[in-house]
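Checklist before submission:
- one chain only
- standard amino acids only
- sequence pasted in full

Submission:
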Amino acid sequence: MGIGAYSAGLFHLMTHAYFKAMLFLGSGSVIHGMEGVVGHNPALAQDMRLMGGLRKYMPITGFTFLVGCLAICGIPPFAGFWSKDEILSLAYADNPMLWAVGWLTAGLTAFYMFRMYFSTFEGEFRGNVNALRQQLDQSKTAPEMAVVFGPGAMDPRELSITPDQDHADHGHASEPHESPLSMTLPLMVLAIPSALVGLLGMPFNNRFEAFIYPPGESEQAALEAASEFEWQEFLIMAGNSVGIALIGITLASLMYQRRKIDPTAIASRFPALYELSLHKWYIDDWYDRIFVKGCRRLARQILEVDFKVVDGLVNFAGFLAILAGEGLKYLETGRIQFYLFFIFTALVGLSITSAF
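Returned file contents:
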């Protein structure tokens, strides 16, 4: 959108909707299948280190998840290829540095998506390794408890990830199971547009771009796009896009499927880079420090002002009203003798004051 490629951005938004929705639903299907083995414990049912080999037990989920991975990585002819390639081409035309950033990001996407796929669906199932299950279960601790303050504040203990002991040990099977049709049918339905909807935006016959233009301009825009299309440029840009995705997939395969490269050795050789990656560049920590805790500190200060200044002024005004009322009720007695005595006392006081 920043380089004016709004049609490419809308096209990627559309293609992305199908395969990203399928990937999220596929993750839910995997969690559902794992709960039959490890129980209703999110610390175990959602940890990829306890998965592996699920394609054998969950073939529909595994196949649709693979389709989603290929689509999001930009492998032709899946939907993500056409929209991502169009964005990279337009970025290169605007600024080659922007293209380089997007190109490298596409490689990282392919790497971490297939790291997830290989760790989850390929290899041997690791969910029955009791030592690993106990280690992962004990390593999951509840989040740091914050101070509860102010009216209506939520108790952070409600956010504890400690599982319900009554339901945490409901795993009775030794193998995962495929999810029911109510969960796999949406995956199969979404797999079709994830594979084919990108064909609407092929650069040499871009029907999506013609669709989003106003009726009077759609035919002219389609003709201009067709006249500007160059096969050589398309093949070069598409080749680079697919090439970096294949490099990312290959690295993921070497590390997490064939085990030719040990990720632990790389992490130990570059500990600073590993820690930076492990903590997600510490962005969450800075967000927590600046926005979460910063907003809490600001809220506490506002609460103090509300209690001491605003409420104090209101309470002080009420106190003055009570004090004045209590004082005046002794003056407004309705007895003439008291009024005459009050006037006499005032006159005597004025006489004494004027004498001095």
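Reviewer check: The longest helix spans residues 283-328.
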